[in-house]
Design a protein that fits this description.
With 94 residues, the protein is mainly β. The chain has one domain: Sandwich (Immunoglobulin-like). Helices cover 0% and strands 60% of the residues. The chain has a 5-stranded mixed β-sheet with strand order 2-9-8-4-6, with no helix packed on it. A 4-stranded antiparallel β-sheet has the order 1-3-7-5, with no helix packed on it. The N and C termini lie far apart (46 Å).
Length: 94
């Protein structure tokens, strides 16, 4: 189980921003999970690992971009999806 399944991040152009979601093993252990990252604008840590029955781990997602985007992380086994959305705010200095 992943929670939340939607991770909304906000930043300014080119500045890195991070968020986390929790991955929990339900109905038994997870021998080896992997997280597929579809874009170079995201880094994820850890991207793989193992969980005992009922164990949880915080997954850190870091995004860097000059434009807003949305991407889906795929977590296997199970095909879980976490959608990451980065919104870029333009700061106008007067």
């Amino acid at each position: 189980m992943a929670s939340p399944v939607r991770l909304a991040l906000t930043s300014t152009p080119g500045k890195a921003v991070s968020g986390t979601f929790i991955l929990t093993a339900r109905d038994g252990p997870v021998g080896n999970f992997t997280i597929a990252v579809p874009t170079g604008k995201l880094t994820v840590f850890p991207r793989s690992g193992s969980l005992g029955p009922g164990d949880s781990i915080a997954i850190t997602v870091r995004a860097t971009s000059k434009v807003s985007f949305s991407a889906q992380l795929i977590i296997n086994p199970g095909g879980l999806v976490v959608t990451v959305t980065l919104t870029i705010k333009i700061v106008v200095k007067a």
